[in-house]
Amino acid sequence: MSGVIPYVVRRALTALPTIAIFACFVFLLQKLLPGDPVLAMAGEDRDPATIAALRLQYHLDDPLPLQFLHWAKGALAGDLGESLRNHDTVIHLIAQKLPVTIELALLSTLFSLLIGIPAGILAAAKKGSVWDNLARGVALWGVSIPTFWFGIVLIIIVSVNLQWLPASGYASIAEDPWQNIRTMILPAFVLGNAQAGILMRHTRSSMLEVLRQDYVRTARAKGLSEMRVVMAHAFRNALGPLVTVTAVLLGQLLAGAVLTEQVFSIPGFGKMLVDAVFNRDYAVVQGVALCTGVGFIVLNLLADIAQLLLNPRLRAS
Amino acid sequence: MTLALERQPGIETEAPTPRGGAFRKLMANPSAVLGLSIAAVCIGCALFAQWIMPFDPLKPNYALIRKPASALHWLGTDELGRDILSRLILGARTSLSAGLVSAGIAVGVGSFFGVLAGYIGGTVDIVISRVADALLATPFLIVAIVLATFLGPSLANAMIAIGLAAAPVFTRIARAQVIDIKATDYVESARALGFRDWRIVVHHILPNIAAPLIVQATLTMAQAITAEASLSFLGLGEQPPIPSWGAMLNSAKSYLTQAPGMSLWPGLAIFLSVLAFNLIGDALRDALDPRQE
Amino acid sequence: MKTGFLIAGALALSATAASAQTLRIGLLDDPDLLDPAPGKSFVGRIVFQSMCDKLVDISPDLKIVPRLALSWETTEDGKVLTFKLRDGVTFQDGEPFNAAAVKYNIERDKTMPESIRKAELASVDTVEVIDPLTVRFNLKKPDSTLLAALTDRSGMMVAPEAAKQAGAKFGLNPVCSGPYKFVERVQQDHITLARDPNYWNAKAFSFEKIVFRTIPDSTARLASLRSGDLDIAERVEPTDVKELEAQKGFKVFSVVSLGYQGLTINVANGPASKAPIGQDKRIRQALSLAIDRQGLVDAAFDGQFVPAGQAVPPVSPYYSDKFPPPARDLDKAKALLKAAGVEHPVLNLRYTTSSRGQKVNEIIQAMAAEAGFDVKLVSTEFATQMKVQTDGDFEGSQIGWSGRPDPDGNIYSFYVCGGGLNDSHYCNQDVDKILGDARLTTDVAARKALYEKFNAIALDELPIIYLYFEKWIWGVTAKLQGFTPYPDGMIRLEGVKLAQ
Predict the structure, then answer these.
(1) Could you tell me if A12 and A139 lie in one domain?
(2) pTM
């Protein structure tokens, strides 16, 4: 375990400049977007006095580097600014949506693990056979089907026609856990479906890699059943890269569920981010981007640590 | 969303077998053949649209709005009375060019920086890697949306946006490959002999890193087709009246209960073309991987 | 004995509780800040309708009716407007509603930095408290549009103490005097209001709670209605109407709205106005004649919307029968183009990205092509569109206006020289005089005559080509009783109940 702590510290330190560049990059990109948030904010009537006052209040006439520094200073102090659209603090908005997003991301990842990993193991164990192709087909379909289309079709079939599940909306898990599950199942399934193919592919190649190893041949030679060989020996060692991939997928889901959230009206980060981009709600975009960027990097770090723990051989480096 | 991030140890570092054997392996793989056939149909539609389309895909016909499938209009008509089959065929052009051009941009830009980082090393490497990491930390679709919004709504801009958003993965792959190959005796001796750097890169390094890049490129094509559909779904891609499968899906979404066929076909088209390129990519990976029997 | 009473009491309470219902309304958008002063969204107004009472309101035929103000009178010269206020009204936090509160609110609307009500109240000079139930508005000049403005956010009364304490953050926890008070809000998800038992007309409102849910996707919103998760869905897509009407268990209400959709042509705003269409009214007239408005509405909206030929809708007392929507006339259009010397004018037409916008504009593109126009469509997202228009970076822009009860609200700022909404930079001194005069008198006949004079000029010069009036369409559960559609699109819940 001794090598792990300095490793973590080192990684955390190298992550900091990445986050800084990332924040800068996001800031610059959205400031370069055409259009004017104040005009969009000022209402249909566009009163010039209001517009001027708004510009002043949000420092929108300052030079860009100054605006970024202003934001960065605030961010370090824990103040991520306010939404231009409804004056709610960005922190409050994030606090409201983060649990939703995390829940959706976790549920989706769960679905993708449940579909992708068994498919991958099966495909690897029975490589080249009909099972291999079937498993790959089933998981592939998830990756190829457009999520927004799949989501809408499911709503029509499951919610409107069969009336099994609600068509949209969200109930927080604290308020109403049963309703919460009911509203999250479809979107999580849609997203999980999409990610399952990726997990399947990685599981399959990781397993194939491991199944070739000497110690596996030894296990087989010892007369252990194929099932034990696959599950007990091969899979455990194939886990490493899988952890990484799962972490990456989870990270991507933090803000990437844009279209699914739109279709199912789930109040998560993805939708908030895209709406903020379209409304030029700078502080919100910055805040969410920062949050997801940090989250992604943290997840990656955790994944790498998990790999180290699972695979002592890697610690040598 | 197709994840294009490869972080598996081992697979990327060995040089692949010569192409000939790979090709035979590819054709022997039934899913590859399936993928290639579907892709061929799509490409055919895109190239020969003018000659295959039964009706004018652009002109509205108010008498025929949202008619179901019939002998005349095999897939029915859309919300402005236009033949869906014709629009689907022309839409292939949008989707495939988006796939091809975006993937091309991604490979070109991404690999360029990756080779640079891997070959030169030092500060250049650090800077490029940090930027690539930062981009990879952002969900692909978000980057594409922001870039497309910045550039303005058009197919060309959507392709650039998607290409740039997909580039970092190639940077990472190329860099990893270059670092491994740079250390081989082959390259060391070339340098010792005084060969110019760019010659080494072009003649010795590029051919050997091509394989994983090609595999990733086909996967990126699949990703790009979905991305173009997503951007069109949000109004950021090809402008009307030129059809795009994503935009057709967006329009169809308002009529799901009245005219479900309208959304069935563009969704299916996107699905099949994406599937095709995923299949090809997977099969290529299998074919080019030297250690699989 | 006591236990007996307690039990009886509990049973009685639970009986009323059993009939306490929640009304669930599906909104197309998420409201912005829930403060009437900076509030700018349409859906925000829907929430305000139940939460914040206003001085006056409108009737379904656009007459001004009492609400918090029982009566009002204007002096001869039109410069003093005095209101007599309703007695016994309290704000939701217990503060009394009186003339001082009205004064506070108007001043707040006029001075708060984030307030966008200033233009509507520009004619108000001072507000005087005569006695607790009488308040006097002293105007800088006569303004017949003021009462209409007071039927909307400018006339909404917020609790003064609560507003003073919260400052700009008032909208996060609003306190008004309406039938329902604010309970909680999850951004982009839902807003909950609960009945205020102290409301002066509490018994007219049967619901205990109202939950507004934001479901931007129209298909999903309709699906929620059909699956029973919503009782009312606002802005049902016109193309969904026939199917919904055919379903048992649901009803559809609709009414022509106060707003319009049209084409704004840049006639003098920067270099883009130099395009032929901006310079020659004959080309604009040709474009207007090339469009089959009824065909457009039939093709894009299943015939649910209504063709438009002027700025105010048919329900308005100021609508003029002399200016019906022009019928399509391709021959005349082509003749006009020939006379103007440009048989194939090019028009870059911007529109706000949306599936509805795409449909409508594709139809316009195709129809105009038949007269010889070469229309290029440029889909622009909303934030960019606003800037593009003010900057004059457009030749034509397909855009609408949500509409105001008073015709001045649909016309003045769009046509006067330098008007705040006059993106096309149209400028005609005669028009300025007519529109200015129309603001000075409250006589309906006189104003109507003035607006007809206005139409004669505006509909000839056509800086704005009117296309169609939208309709507000509500899908409701058949159990809903007492629902009345209003042309301002608001949901008024007095007397509305859900059958068991």
Answers:
(1) no
(2) 0.80
